[in-house]
Amino acid sequence: LSFLTGFILDALPGWSELFTLAPAERMRRLSDPDVRRDLAARADSEEAGILRGLARWDRMVVAETFDDTTKKWQGMRVGEVAEAEGVTPFEALCDIVIADGLRTGLRPDLPEASRATWEARRDVWLDPRTVVGASDAGAHLDLFCTVGYSSFLVGPAVRDHGLLSMEQAVRELTEVPARLYGLRDRGRIAEGWHADVVLFDPATVGPGEERTLDDLPGGASRLTVDAHGVEHVFVAGTAIVRDSAFTGAQPGTLLRSGRDTDTVTP
Description:
The protein is an alpha+beta fold. The protein is built from 9 helices and 8 strands. A 4-stranded antiparallel β-sheet has the order 3-6-7-8, with no helix packed on it. Strand 7 and strand 8 form a beta hairpin. Helix 4 (about 80-85) packs across helix 5. The mean pLDDT is about 90.
């Protein structure tokens, strides 16, 4: 189980043991009607506390599937699947993840944020004490994916919600972090500086859907998000993306403290 759901389920009373089992045994347990009833009851018990509100199986969205028999459910709420199959939402969820070999991508179906929430986000983004970015630096990249924050900022946040200007958004993604970390000759377009440039279409730029890639060492998986509307990317003047496709060029280099940075003082 991927995306945020893994954290939710592991924290529920009586569920931790399930995640210590080998995949085959875990699927066997989840196929047992008695085990299903017990797990569902524990998730809805007083002991679960505030997590009871998170374990709303009917509201979970089947974000990604891996078996031919489950493709038809992709993008649907578990509650909709349960209604179509004539079973309870938790039974429907178990049937899907077992068919997918426990690889199903699930996420909560969260309501659209209010205008006040969007404006509060903008205030945090523009606060001089903050830097726009993703938390945990990818520590949980097999459970949820936040790498789409940059295309989200210049896309939905600017274009769709008008929270800040495009110039402000670009500065928050480039100049602000470059100055914080003291990166020399980077973070803006200027004569003599490194030609690191991203060209995107303001009308279409934005993050795509989460998907799984099996490209980590040992065949491990991670979640990723593609960017829409990014036409060209240059690193040190060399195109690494042309017409929205990778060129295969790798002109980047490892930056060294002192050689490629200036000391930053508060």
